Amino acid sequence: MVLKPRLRGYASTSAPAKRVGWDTVNHLIQQKPAYAKLPDRSVLSVAGPGVGQFLDGLISGKMPEDSARAHFYSVFLNAKGRILYDVFLHSNAAAESEPGYLIEYDARPSEAPPLLQMLKRHLLRSKIKVRDLSENYDVWTMWSPHLTNPGENLWEYHPTGVIEPAFALDNTHRWGTQPMPFVDSRAVGMGTRALVPKSSPNTLVLADDVAEVTAEDYRLHRYLNGVPEGVDDLPPMHAFPINSSLDIMGAQRAVIWGRNISRERDT
């Protein structure tokens, strides 16, 4: 005789799984201003005479004038127009004669070549200095769930099918200027970003009602706003900028997009 084990306390039929509704997700959303440290972000310094011209041929968008001291958001692409890195360029000009940027990016291992080595290959005889400052800075982001839309979004439509924020064409200060924090304009309500020296963390001044949260809370904040970031959302060597609407987020200009779209059609 074969004895069958009996499971005490369990019904013979399984109950249907409970569906996850908006109330289940809503309690995860921060209901007050928050800030979070982003441990996966690294920082490179690119500085020296002609840094704007040096970066202009490497990133997808048009560089602002060196004298503008403007922050901006962009992407590095390979020869086929696929994403290598999505980056935030924080203006870090020490003087009029030595403009520079701190490049914030996701340095986790991926199929893309290391950004530091990639930039150094393009230096040639340039006097630009490229250094890894990840040990000197922490990347923080701040946002408020009650931030209202600052104004109507206007869009430019181009024959190539590209859609761009209209203010990105004539407002080089959309992302903020030195020494102001980086205004994250990829979507309304994304907040601001800041590079805080590890030697003086008290430079990050916050109001009393701002809560410190985790990088996972920030990721949920991004997903609720439809904003991709880093190697998980933008797989290096595979994703095209148009797959994630990075033109709408201000990463590219139409003249560059026209060239990249033609490449995408050929691949």
TrEMBL record:
Which intervals of the chain form a coiled coil? none
Q: In which domain of life is the source organism classified?
A: Eukaryota
* Cross-referenced InterPro entries: TrmE/GcvT-like, YgfZ/GcvT
A Gene Ontology cellular component where this protein is annotated is: mitochondrial matrix
GO BP terms, alphabetized: iron-sulfur cluster assembly
Name the record gives this protein: Aminomethyltransferase folate-binding domain-containing protein
Species per Swiss-Prot/TrEMBL record: Antrodiella citrinella
